[in-house]
């Protein structure tokens, strides 16, 4: 650990450069409500101090680009812990060689602003004498790549050298099929973050269902002393699952992208109505995607948004093995990935999202088919 | 973690079966000086209690078959910590498919007896008012395979599924060349043990030099909050490095096995006398092994002990890359593996070791070529 450079500062919106080594005030008269750590040793010091004072730490790892989904994880953490640590780190090893690491949205200032506002909200809830006092965000951990990958440059090659955590066969399924290094990167960075923070509880969103299954498995298999909490997916009023990538959608693709959720809901209804076979359940989903795609194809290039269904899966909740038949006492994970193609032609003044509709956007979503008596 | 079965008992030599769920007394009137844990939750409870009381934990992971080398690690840990945790677990994932997992010595009763005696020694040292009070062994962690590998049977196949830590390219070098799953197994089990114990310091013997390099790298890369201490190799008066496998040697092979140390010493002398080229340093070692082998081959099958040099390596201390030239300011790791063949013919009454001289024994040893000004 001796090679790690010590670094800690309190956040200041006035001096928003990540590299400025200052200060304790958010702006004149508004002290910052949390500390920002760029390195591990002083984060550990705070953690140890909290432990000695019998305080509990809930940890929410993020890659920034915070949205209501992330905030819902933090609110959940605030119900169960006195202190919340949030990490913001865009992890290179979970992006494939040809994937979108450089285009991943980086929105530090607005992220911090959202966290400050959330802390004010949490403080008010406590002050207003809500039944259960809530915890607060105490620390943001925003490490450099060198802090997270100290000995070798992080590799995104599947056979690249480095220090990795692998969880197979789970990580080869579903999302792992098209993204072979993704869950190796996720498990590896989470192991590092968990070791740096040593949280009592960690919070993940159900939206990334395979990630939740892999993290639960990692915590179990590696005897990690933390509890994993899964928080249900936050959705737009239409039902579209929140995602940092949604900013690339624009209005037209946002509307058509909702198909993924509608297809899953149709399959869930089939299950609730008594169907248990793969054919019946996934058939209900596929008939939705087929119908919408046919409708879109009938429209002109200035009106339509085309997409491809990458996969629709019906799988065991622990192993993610595909199921031919759902055991109603155990339930299942119904998940899908859908790739929104770039818009073919845009209209003047159209809201096409970040990147003017030229960026393909892969949407994922899932529903848990609940166990029934 | 919820699948882990809670289990803790105090050790009792009277009821030495590992599976008996008893008791607190070592034997009538002699309370046991440490607790034996078979599972994680109550070990964690003790650890947390020690943390709150500002006590420090040094951790010595072992596979049992304890000898003076292990005890020297514990004595070192006692100098720096109030409490010492020792694990005894023969880790299946570090044995290859065709390796000697089943024949690895399992000596629970004598291991515990040695630890009890060592605790008495440590208590006496403190009572006698030695300058620095020493810590004591507080806990033995002797988990089942199911506790250590809770979700899937542990695989020893290089492409087998499971949850693993891989540290490459370090783990492919030297010992990893002939044992492809070895360091994956070591890193994986150590990550689990470190998570279960969360020690302030961990102790490893220099004898397994590649293991020490890999563990240091793992601790650094995964931001593990512990310090790694390397303790110099304990040797028999002749110079032979202690090893659990030495019990298989017998007198004749024990004498010839010393060749590995003599060869390393000759190379170290070449380095100390000013040589820095690979040819000069390793040449000095090889001339020793060649000479001894020629001497042995001249003897009759009832007198001789044959061996093969597996490798002799001159490597960088951090990367284990082979060196053509030693940078004197940095030093190097000089290491070797030597395989003692089974005895061809034995003599009546001869001490041939466990297995009657029929077991091939692979010896490893190393010397650090010290950096010089």
Automatic annotation (TrEMBL), chains A, B:
Membrane-traversing stretches: none
EC number: 6.3.2.1
Family annotation (InterPro entries): Pantoate_ligase, Pantoate_ligase_C, Rossmann-like_a/b/a_fold
Enzyme superclass (EC): ligase
Pathway as given in its UniProt record: Cofactor biosynthesis; (R)-pantothenate biosynthesis; (R)-pantothenate from (R)-pantoate and beta-alanine: step 1/1
Reaction equation(s) it catalyzes: (R)-pantoate + beta-alanine + ATP = (R)-pantothenate + AMP + diphosphate + H(+)
GO MF: ATP binding; pantoate-beta-alanine ligase activity
The entry's keywords: ATP-binding, Ligase, Nucleotide-binding, Pantothenate biosynthesis
GO biological process, alphabetically ordered: pantothenate biosynthetic process
Family according to the record: Belongs to the pantothenate synthetase family.
Stated name of the protein: Pantoate--beta-alanine ligase
Organism lineage string: Eukaryota, Fungi, Dikarya, Ascomycota, Pezizomycotina
């Amino acid at each position: 650990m001796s090679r790690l450079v010590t670094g800690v500062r309190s956040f200041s919106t006035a001096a928003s450069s990540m590299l400025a080594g200052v200060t304790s005030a958010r702006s004149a008269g508004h002290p910052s409500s949390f500390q920002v750590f760029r390195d591990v040793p002083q984060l550990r010091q705070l953690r140890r101090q909290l432990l000695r004072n019998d305080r509990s730490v809930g940890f929410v790892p993020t890659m920034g680009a915070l949205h209501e989904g992330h905030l819902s994880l933090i609110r959940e953490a605030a119900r169960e812990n006195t202190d919340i640590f949030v990490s913001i780190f865009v992890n290179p090893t979970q992006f494939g060689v040809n994937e979108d690491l450089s285009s991943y949205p980086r929105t530090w200032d607005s992220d911090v602003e959202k966290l400050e506002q959330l802390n004010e909200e949490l403080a008010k809830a406590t002050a207003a004498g809500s039944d259960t006092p809530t915890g607060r965000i105490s620390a943001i951990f925003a490490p450099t790549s060198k802090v997270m990958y100290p000995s070798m440059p992080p590799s995104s090659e599947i056979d690249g050298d480095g220090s990795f955590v692998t969880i197979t066969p789970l990580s080869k399924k579903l999302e792992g099929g098209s993204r072979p290094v993704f869950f190796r990167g996720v498990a590896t960075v989470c192991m590092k973050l968990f070791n740096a923070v040593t949280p009592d509880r960690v919070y993940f969103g159900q939206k990334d269902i395979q990630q939740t299954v892999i993290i639960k498995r990692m915590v179990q298999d590696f005897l990690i002393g933390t509890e994993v909490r899964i928080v249900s997916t936050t959705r737009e009023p239409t039902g579209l699952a929140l995602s940092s990538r949604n900013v690339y959608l624009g209005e037209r693709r946002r509307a058509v992208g909702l198909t993924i959720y509608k297809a899953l809901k149709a399959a869930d209804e089939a299950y609730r109505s008594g169907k248990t076979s793969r054919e019946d359940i996934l058939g209900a989903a596929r008939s939705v995607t087929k119908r919408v795609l046919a409708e879109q194809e009938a429209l002109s290039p200035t009106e339509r948004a085309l997409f491809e269904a990458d996969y629709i899966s019906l799988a065991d909740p622990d192993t993610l093995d595909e199921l031919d038949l759902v055991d109603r006492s155990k339930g299942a994970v119904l998940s899908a990935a859908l790739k929104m193609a770039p818009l073919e032609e845009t209209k003047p003044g159209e809201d096409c999202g970040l990147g003017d509709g030229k960026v393909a956007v892969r949407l994922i979503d899932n529903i848990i088919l609940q166990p029934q008596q």
